[in-house]
Design goal:
The complex is a heterodimer of chains A (127) and B (106). Chain A is built from no helices and eleven strands. The termini of chain A are far apart. The model of chain A has no long low-confidence stretch (mean pLDDT 96). Chain B has 106 residues and is mainly β. In chain B, 0% of the residues lie in helices and 50% in strands. Chain B is built from no helices and eleven strands. In chain B, a hairpin with a 6-residue loop joins strand 4 and strand 5. The termini of chain B are far apart. The mean pLDDT of chain B is 97. Classes of the chains: A mainly beta (127), B mainly beta (106). Chains A and B meet through strand 5 and strand 10 of A and strand 4, strand 5 and strand 10 of B.
Chain lengths: 127, 106
């Protein structure tokens, strides 16, 4: 059974750094083709992809937020950590982590979509 | 960056109706497109990947198709549990979601 769960603060102040942890089970990030990404959703708004890390430590970032984001993995702990600096009230959102299986034109390990998601964690940014 | 534009933003329909949601990419993404269903307060659920392949366990009334940079999600006969918000997402060049289509009861 594959599960993912996000953890971190529910409230941060403007200019602070947010650190979120995704703890997962049922798969390993040492397995070829697997990745874990972060997606957020402001209240009442659309999904926005933030960052993703693959089994081979390939890291990808949303270009509009790249300067503020860092994603890392701890394979032994089955965790992926996202840090976002200089938080602003517009960053108030539910933050999800999700598993992704790599699929591209040269090689494909599965669907390519985000196939398993955590329940999400709501982070508010306010002074 | 690749932009994904969904239409309509809101769709009103009745149980038993056939509905179609469209997603247009700003450039070619081949068939690297997924569709998700999201219900209020819940995480999204993967429905379709590679534009037309049904994820395991997804009912066959859901289908996807592609024509150039235009992609469609069709629900052949709406069931009560299908009223939700639907998102497309490209994975040709990094990852971009559409703005969502809310499917509501007429």
């Amino acid at each position: 059974q594959i599960t993912l769960k996000e953890s971190g603060p529910t409230l941060v102040k403007p200019t602070q750094t947010l650190t979120l942890t995704c703890t997962f089970s049922g798969f390993s990030l040492s397995t070829s083709g697997l990745g874990v990404g972060w997606i957020r959703q402001p209240p009442g708004k659309a999904l926005e992809w933030l960052a993703l890390i693959y089994w081979d430590d390939d890291k990808r970032y949303n270009s509009s937020l790249k300067s503020r984001l860092t994603i890392t993995k701890d394979t032994s702990k089955n965790q992926v950590v996202l840090t976002m600096t200089n938080m602003d009230p517009v960053d108030t959102a539910t933050y999800y982590c999700a598993r992704k299986v790599f699929c591209g034109s040269t090689r494909c390990f599965g669907s390519g979509g985000f196939d398993y998601w955590g329940q999400g964690t709501l982070v508010a940014v306010s002074s | 960056d690749i932009q994904m534009t969904q239409s309509p933003s809101t769709l009103s329909a009745s149980v038993g109706d056939r509905v179609t949601i469209t997603c247009r990419a700003s450039q070619s993404i081949s068939n690297w497109l997924a569709w998700y269903q999201q219900k209020p307060g819940k995480a999204p659920k993967l429905l379709i990947y590679k534009a037309s392949t049904l994820e395991s366990g997804v009912p066959s009334r859901f289908s996807g198709s592609a024509s150039g940079t235009e992609f469609t999600l069709t629900i052949s006969s709406l069931q009560p549990g299908d009223f939700a918000t639907y998102y497309c997402q490209q994975y040709s060049n990094y990852y971009t979601f559409g703005q969502g289509t809310k499917l509501e009861i007429k």
